[in-house]
């Protein structure tokens, strides 16, 4: 490969798509020599090009791309309806099992000419990647490339390299994969001046100096990364829409939006715009943005015609309204359904969606008020509106009731909305989990959220069933052919920026990869996803003078990932109370940073105890937003899980946890142990030095050394604070200041 490509492999730019050269390239499968793709669909051509690129990198020989049959082994790409050979490979029943974005892959040792009406000259093994649609074929290509890499790293056998015989034991590769979530979305919080709100990996890759970037190659490479893990929706600007970004829906910028849409369209990705609810006033000169005002509704209908004329396949609008000083329908005495439906009606003729964020709460709370509870807000605002939203409105709900803390319960709004379509919102960018200076693999946290049972329609009413649309109104599966079924899914705030390795901390790439894989299939385990990412990412970063070390490298890095969330929680937030961070930038320990704040994120620690009473008996009543048995579990300190105790209860420091420790001793122990375990992450990485390229080793080491030092700062600040508050000494007499 070129020097440029080698540099990319060594700095992390290619991420999990660098396709390292196989040390057994001469044994490449015969079917990797030719790609047969039929049809001029742009996404199909992307699939063929991606396959050609990956095979060339792995085997050192570029396969040919043909649009006509050949008489040698090959890979066939196509949709069931447009590619005759593809259709022949699968029965009608097998084709019907594939949904709109799913795929089937089959590898057979040979073709029997008597069984092929269209390609009777073909001899030898071949592989078929098929789907109902071109994006499904593209996702199948990325699966095939992952499969090949899994064999090429020496861990798994690579079959069907040259065999061809009349007898066969059946397919050597037979895969059916359908995405569980119809919408698999990434949200960007990018501003057009080039800044990124809650961005920790450099400036925006979309914008600079209030204009669209000129680096279209980087955007194309980003589209590759997203498509490779099944992402198909992308909002391209911050939900806090400032003045310049408000103009994205005007002639001034719509041609740029169209250029972005074209880049991502080639990878099966549909773009969305975050809009300013007050646009009729700021752009149109109206005196109101009242959703029930006919003039406002007409302004948005005209604007929708203009926007969709420029970008006919725009996914729709993302809206943050009446939240954190953003404008919205509350200003006019209207509710959220009024605002969302007015916009939805404007977009409906074009198939557009309104994604309406439920992050709405009173950010002018009096800290003296112990009854007002920010955690209650989303449920209190949106539950009464259940069933009032249009079919093209989707409510986007954060995974917890607060704001992406390292530990908080699942939002009770999920499941409570039984007649409304919802998106689950995760945060890949590590705002409260170390800001990509600390290692914190978030897939285990997301798995806990997805597996949580709301019991809203009886046992089995899990978050993953609710947000996939597969939980019907009576608890039975919804029909995939229903209109609403496609308006469910998962969205997440991205963690990428203009840093060369995309995420600042190289190991933070695992969160972007893991999010995409989990959105496609929530049944994948955190271990499986970590294993995939490490193998794909570090297969090419191993120092080429130290071959054969992957058996040590893969499990070591995987363990670092799998331990990291628990480690970060240990030296930061005790028992679910959270928020002990410096205000505004949210980095570093500040126990009382928000304690007297209007933002409503309190721990209520005094000399006697700590925690927030959210019970129905004596507290804010938040617990009552859950169904039984979850509400019953959270209501009592006897049954509340230790890790959430202080989120739901105010208890004395001497309260004994299920673990047998007191609250205060748990705080001391976890913070000492967490800092020690953070140092162990660094030490593990140091032990891998001889197995890694130097540039990769150095950039990760710098982050882990910072984490080691910062974890000690967290330990000492938290422990000292609670020692001084409680006056209770550490049983192990460790240094507390």
Automatic annotation (TrEMBL):
InterPro entries: A-glucoronidase_C_sf, GH, Glyco_hydro_67_aGlcAse, Glyco_hydro_67_aGlcAse_N, Glyco_hydro_67_C, Glyco_hydro_67_cat, Hex-like_dom2
Assigned keywords, A-Z: Carbohydrate metabolism, Glycosidase, Hydrolase, Polysaccharide degradation, Xylan degradation
GO CC, any one term: extracellular region
Biological process (GO), any one: glucuronoxylan catabolic process
EC number: 3.2.1.131
Domain Alpha glucuronidase N-terminal: 15-144
Boundaries of every Glycosyl hydrolase family 67 catalytic domain copy: 173-502
Catalytic activity, as annotated: Hydrolysis of (1->2)-alpha-D-(4-O-methyl)glucuronosyl links in the main chain of hardwood xylans
Pfam families in the cross-refs: Glyco_hydro_67C, Glyco_hydro_67M, Glyco_hydro_67N
Catalytic residues, chain numbering: 324, 403, 431
GO MF: alpha-glucuronidase activity; xylan alpha-1,2-glucuronosidase activity
Coiled-coil blocks: none
Family assignment from sequence similarity: Belongs to the glycosyl hydrolase 67 family.
Assembly: Homodimer.
Alphabetized PANTHER family for the sequence: ALPHA-GLUCURONIDASE A
Name of this chain's protein: Xylan alpha-1,2-glucuronidase
Source organism of the structure: Paenibacillus terrae
């Amino acid at each position: 490969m070129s020097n440029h490509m080698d540099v990319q492999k060594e700095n992390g730019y290619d991420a999990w798509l660098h396709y390292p050269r196989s040390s057994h390239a001469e044994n490449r499968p015969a079917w990797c020599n030719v790609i047969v793709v039929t049809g001029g669909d742009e996404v199909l051509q992307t699939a063929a090009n991606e396959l050609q690129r990956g095979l060339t990198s792995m085997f050192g020989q570029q396969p040919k791309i043909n649009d006509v049959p050949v008489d040698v082994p090959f890979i066939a790409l196509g949709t069931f309806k447009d590619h005759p050979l593809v259709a022949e490979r699968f029965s009608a029943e097998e084709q019907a099992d594939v949904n709109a974005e799913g795929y089937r892959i089959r590898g057979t040792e040979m073709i029997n000419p008597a069984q092929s009406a269209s390609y009777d000259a073909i001899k030898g093994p071949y592989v078929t990647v098929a789907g109902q649609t071109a994006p499904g074929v593209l996702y199948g290509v990325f699966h095939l490339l992952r499969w090949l890499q899994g064999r090429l790293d020496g861990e798994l056998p690579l079959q069907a390299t040259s065999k061809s015989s009349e007898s066969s034991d059946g397919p050597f590769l037979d895969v059916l994969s359908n995405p569980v979530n119809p919408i698999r979305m990434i949200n960007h919080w990018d501003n057009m001046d080039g800044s990124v709100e809650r961005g920790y990996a450099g400036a925006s890759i979309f914008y600079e100096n209030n204009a669209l970037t000129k680096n279209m190659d980087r955007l194309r490479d980003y589209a590759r990364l997203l498509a490779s893990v099944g992402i198909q929706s992308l909002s391209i600007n911050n939900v806090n829409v400032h003045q310049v970004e408000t103009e994205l829906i005007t002639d001034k910028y719509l041609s740029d939006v169209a250029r972005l849409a074209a880049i991502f369209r080639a990878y099966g990705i549909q773009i969305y715009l975050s809009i300013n609810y007050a646009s009729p006033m700021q752009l149109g000169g109206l005196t109101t943005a009242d959703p029930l005002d006919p003039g406002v509704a007409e302004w948005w209908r005209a604007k929708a015609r203009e926007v969709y004329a420029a970008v006919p396949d725009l996914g729709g609008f993302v809206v943050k309204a009446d939240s954190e000083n953003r404008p919205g329908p509350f200003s006019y005495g209207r509710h959220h359904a009024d605002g969302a439906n007015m916009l939805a009606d404007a977009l409906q003729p074009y198939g557009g969606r309104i994604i309406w964020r439920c992050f709405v709460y009173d950010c002018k709370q009096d800290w003296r008020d112990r009854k007002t509870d920010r955690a209650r807000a989303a449920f209190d605002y949106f539950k009464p509106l259940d069933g009032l939203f249009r079919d093209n409105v989707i409510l986007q709900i954060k995974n917890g009731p607060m704001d992406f803390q390292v530990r908080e319960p699942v939002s009770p709004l999920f499941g409570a909305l039984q007649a409304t379509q919802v998106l689950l919102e995760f945060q890949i960018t590590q705002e409260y989990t170390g800001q990509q200076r600390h290692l914190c693999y978030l897939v285990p946290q997301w798995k806990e959220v997805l597996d949580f049972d709301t019991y809203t329609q009886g046992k089995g009413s899990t978050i993953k069933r609710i947000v996939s649309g597969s939980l019907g109104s009576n608890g039975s599966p919804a029909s995939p052919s229903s209109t609403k079924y496609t308006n469910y899914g998962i969205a997440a705030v991205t963690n990428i920026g203009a840093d060369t390795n995309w995420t600042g901390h190289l190991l933070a790439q695992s969160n972007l990869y893991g999010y995409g894989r989990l959105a496609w299939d929530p049944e994948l385990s955190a271990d499986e996803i970590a294993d995939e990412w490490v193998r794909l990412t570090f297969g090419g970063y191993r120092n080429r003078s130290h071959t054969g070390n992957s058996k040590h490298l893969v499990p070591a890095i995987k363990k670092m990932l799998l331990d990291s969330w628990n480690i970060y929680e240990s030296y930061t937030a005790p028992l679910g109370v959270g928020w002990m961070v410096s205000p505004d930038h949210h980095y570093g320990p500040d126990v009382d940073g928000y304690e007297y704040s209007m933002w409503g994120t309190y721990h209520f620690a005094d000399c006697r105890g700590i925690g927030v009473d959210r019970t129905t008996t004596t507290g804010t009543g938040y617990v009552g937003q859950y169904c039984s048995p979850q509400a019953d579990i959270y209501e009592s300190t006897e049954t509340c899980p230790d890790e959430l105790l202080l989120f739901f209860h105010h208890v004395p420091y001497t309260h004994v946890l299920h673990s047998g420790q007191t609250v205060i001793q748990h705080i001391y122990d976890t913070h000492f142990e967490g800092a020690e375990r953070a140092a162990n992450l660094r030490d593990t990485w140091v032990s891998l030095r001889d197995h890694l390229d130097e540039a990769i080793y150095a950039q990760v080491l710098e982050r882990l050394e910072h984490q080691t030092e910062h974890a000690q700062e967290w330990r000492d600040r938290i422990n000292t604070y609670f020692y001084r508050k409680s006056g209770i000494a550490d049983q192990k007499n460790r240094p507390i200041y």
